Amino acid sequence: MIGLMVGRACVVVLALLLVACGEGRAQPGAVSPAADLSARAEAVPGSIEQIRLSFAPVVRLASPAVVSITTRKRIRADRDPFAGDPFFRYFFRDFGVPSRPASRTQTSLGSGVIVRADGLVVTNNHVVEGADEIAVVLDDRRELAATLVTADERTDLAFLQLQDAPGDLPLVTIGDSDELEVGDLVLAIGNPFGIGQTVTSGIVSAKARTTPGGRNDVSFIQTDAAINPGNSGGALVSLDGELVGVNTAIFTRGGGSIGIGFAIPAALVKAQIRAIDAGGRFTRPWLGASVQPVDPALARTLGLTRPVGLMILDVHPAGAAAAAGLRRGDVVTEVNGVEIYDEQGLNLRLALAPLGEDVSLGCWRDGRAFDTELQVTAAPLDPAPDETRLDGRHPLSGVTVANMSPAYNEGLGLDMLDRGVVVVEVPRRGFAARLRLRPGDRIVGIDGQSVDDVDRLEALLDHRGRRWEIAVRRGDRTFTLSVDS
Questions:
Q1: How many other C-beta atoms can be found within 10 angstroms of the C-beta atom of residue 284?
Q2: Residues 266, 245: contact at Cβ < 8 Å?
Q3: Comparing C-alpha atoms, which of 171, 189, 204 is closest to residue 235?
Q4: In this structure, are residues 68 and 198 in contact, taking their beta carbons and an 8 Å threshold?
Q5: Can you tell me the mean pLDDT for 333-355?
Q6: Number of folded domains that form the chain
Q7: How confident is the model at residue 147 (pLDDT cuts 50, 70, 90)?
Q8: Which of the listed residues 128, 162, 196 is the one where a domain comes to its end?
């Protein structure tokens, strides 16, 4: 009995060996594609070359162009509260008790990537923001001073120019981030925690991703390649050795990498370099409309088969959307053939096109799809701000106001569709401060009469009434300040 069992076991083992060698199959192709893929994935390397497969050639190609950035910022500290007292001055001087310094130096570390042979370096805005001194350390340990060329807070990109750049600078080729697919292998190269250049590997986890509470103009590449503090501004590299993203942020609970990192697409880096080469700084395009994402409930209401695109809520008469014939209730589903799902994705797609160029929009209106062309334009500064400090015997005396326009509102972080007169500055000891007026408030009416611009406001304030009724709009709320003269 035991011999029979052993014999049967030998037959089974022999059969398995024959199958593994490609023999003994009753029908060619009987093995499923999934099983065949699994078998090939688990195959033992058949040569020394396969055993030695490595990312090293990619790292040798790209890593020399990844630099370490050190910034220094002088910060004023609170002066000693007793510095003006002669007794304490004498005490500190004669008895050697140190007083607090008037300023201190704050140092921070980050990474960057050389993208041009003349020494142009791309990094994150938050790496160099407010820096008084910027030093760049190359991969071969040479240290060079750098100056800020341009920076954009809303995309978190900044460009530096190396001073006295040598002629043998390494640089990395900027690839096409739009060609990335979820699942592609990528490498993250940077200087985490200031310990020196480090390479981590992973895959593209997602595309067109927005960070929680993130910026308004970036639709990120998500990766599980480890990104840690100090990696900011470093390179996300494809296996072709090309720059496909600039590492910028992580989602974390304790400060370290948990496998959710974000990179700014290289396509946006290219767009900003084009603006630099054109002799200016990057100018953000403006749709000229307020929008909201389409959720499942809204998609059903609009007759869409699935949630996609952004529905237009309001259109500015001087904006690109109005010029393209878009109106309230329309849905923008695509930009140049790329589907969009949120405002960040829309802003990114518009930013990739030079100002003045047309982009193709896929849209939906009244149950039907249609296409239209939209010219990419910047937000207009019309009307002129006319910043004015109000004088006279009235409750707003000393307050600085300005005319609102899309471009002016953008600089203040206000709704770009708002129009009228905005409060820019309120004197701390003025009567308006006691009324709790604050910068960003809109003056919409005086004594029941509407305020359209600064000139109109000054004219309405130029009277000697015994009572003032000042209508103020703050966010979505309007209230009235009643003041007796």
A1: 17
A2: yes
A3: 189
A4: no
A5: 93
A6: 4
A7: very high
A8: 162
Instruction: List pLDDT tens digits, range 349-402.
Output: 999 999 999 999 999 999 999 999 999 999 999 999 999 999 988 999 999 999
Cα–Cα distance measured from residue 314 to residue 278, given in angstroms and rounded to the nearest whole number = 33
What is the number of alpha carbons within 13 Å of residue 239 lying toward its C-beta?
A: 12
Domain that holds residue 97: 64-162
For 353-440, where are the alpha helices, taking DSSP H only? 406-412, 431-434
Cβ(423)–Cβ(401) under 8 Å? yes
Which residues have C-beta within 8 Å of that of residue 149, sequence separation ≥ 6? 120, 158, 159, 160, 161, 276
Specify the CATH number for the domain of residue 342: 2.30.42.10
Q: Residues 281, 269: contact at Cβ < 8 Å?
A: no
b/e string for 58-77 if b means 16 or more Cβ within 10 A?
Answer: bbebbbbbbbbbbbeeeeee
Cβ-based neighbour number of residue 50 at 10 Å:
10
Enzyme catalytic residues: 126, 156, 232
Residue 141 within any structural domain of the chain: yes
- CA dist 250 and 255 (Å) reads 9
DSSP 354: P
Cα dihedral 272, 276, 277, 279 in deg (nearest 10): 140
On whether both 147 and 229 belong to a single domain, the answer is no
- For the chain, the C-alpha Rg in angstroms (whole number) is 31
Distance from C-alpha of 417 to C-alpha of 407, rounded to nearest angstrom: 10
Helix ranges (H only) for 248-395 are 266-277, 296-302, 320-323, 343-351
Across residues 460-481, what is the average pLDDT? 86
Contact 153/129 with Cβ under 8 angstroms? Answer: yes
Pairwise CA distance, residues 43 & 21, whole Å: 12
Q: What is the mean pLDDT of the chain?
A: 83
* Structural tokens at position 418: 């708002």
Helix or strand (DSSP H, E) at 134: strand 133-137
Question: What's the gap between Cα 443 and its chain centre?
Answer: 32
pLDDT in tens, 192-235: 888 888 999 999 999 988 866 555 678 899 999 988 888 889 99
Looking at the structure, do residues 368 and 304 belong to the same domain, yes or no?
Answer: yes
Beta-bridge partners for 21: none
Q: How far apart are CA 102 and CA 79, in angstroms?
A: 5
- How much is the pLDDT for 89? 44
For residue 156, the domain's CATH number is 2.40.10.10
Determine how many CB atoms are found less than 10 A away from the CB of residue 448: 9
Residue 477, Cβ neighbours under 10 Å: how many? 7
Q: What is the distance between the alpha carbons of residues 251 and 226, in angstroms, rounded to a whole number?
A: 11
User: Does the global pTM surpass 0.90?
Assistant: no
